[in-house]
Amino acid sequence: MKIKIIIPVVALVVLMAASFQKIKVKPVLYIIGDSTVQNGSGKGADSLWGWGSFMNLYLNTDKIEIQNHAKGGRSSRTFLTEGRWDSIMKTIKKGDYVLMQFGHNDGGELADTLRARGSIKGIGEETQDIYNPIRKVNETVYTYGHYMRKYVNEAKAKGAIPIILSPVPRNNFNKNGKIDKDKYGVWAQETAKQTGAYFIHLNEMVIEKYEKMGSEKVKVFFPKDHTHTNKEGAVLNAELVTEGIKQLKGCELKKYIK
């Protein structure tokens, strides 16, 4: 009689264990950045898209969840001061990943009445105290590198894996058919070296691709201005991000590539 009772109980335990394995929480890939990463609400308004909206084409979302938190107009500074990073810190966990790309908006004014979104140029520890007319508070502004280090170090403290990307280039061909490399790309790379974060030189990768294609073909990717891509341009950038992930030595994010 006891044997008859024990067998169903054992079977139930085995079934529960198998079910637990199936519902094991997936790692999350958090993506943070500006409008070149997610334009608007990420639904293609005005035919403009960011590359973060298409990472699902290249990563297996059955095995990893993708959360694109990038927001148009944000810099490394304002993504932080608006509390967007804090909201991620509430849920990020060990084994998650963070792709971060900033720079396009960091060159703006520190305290103008329109945006007040700029950071101090470079990767040092310089600061400047300002009155922020947008937020109506006194604020200490730091360098681009300072903010990027903060993202990296706080992600690592949670057991997550940070990956810095240099910003995608604008459609700015010179008369020789070349595109100048972005200084924020240099600072992004230097910050990655400082912190030990993984680094994808997306700026160089996209420039190389654009220069091979030529300005006439590339301009099709930019229907509104020289910064924001259409779907085809965003998909190309997402493909190059994926290639960059493949090249990261020792980074297990590559195992989620389709």
Describe the overall structure.
The protein is an alpha/beta fold. It has helices at residues 2-22, 78-81, 84-89, 144-157, 183-195, 202-213, 215-218, 231-246; strands at residues 28-33, 65-68, 97-101, 128-132, 137-141, 161-165, 198-200. The strands form 2 sheets. A 5-stranded parallel beta sheet has the order 2-1-3-6-7, with helices on both faces. It has a two-stranded antiparallel ribbon with strand order 4-5. Helix 4 (144-157) runs parallel beside helix 5. The longest helix is centred in the first third of the chain and has 21 residues, at 2-22.
List the helices and strands and how they pair.
Elements: H1 2-22, E1 28-33, E2 65-68, H2 78-81, H3 84-89, E3 97-101, E4 128-132, E5 137-141, H4 144-157, E6 161-165, H5 183-195, E7 198-200, H6 202-213, H7 215-218, H8 231-246
Parallel strand pairs: 1-2, 1-3, 3-6, 6-7
Antiparallel strand pairs: 4-5
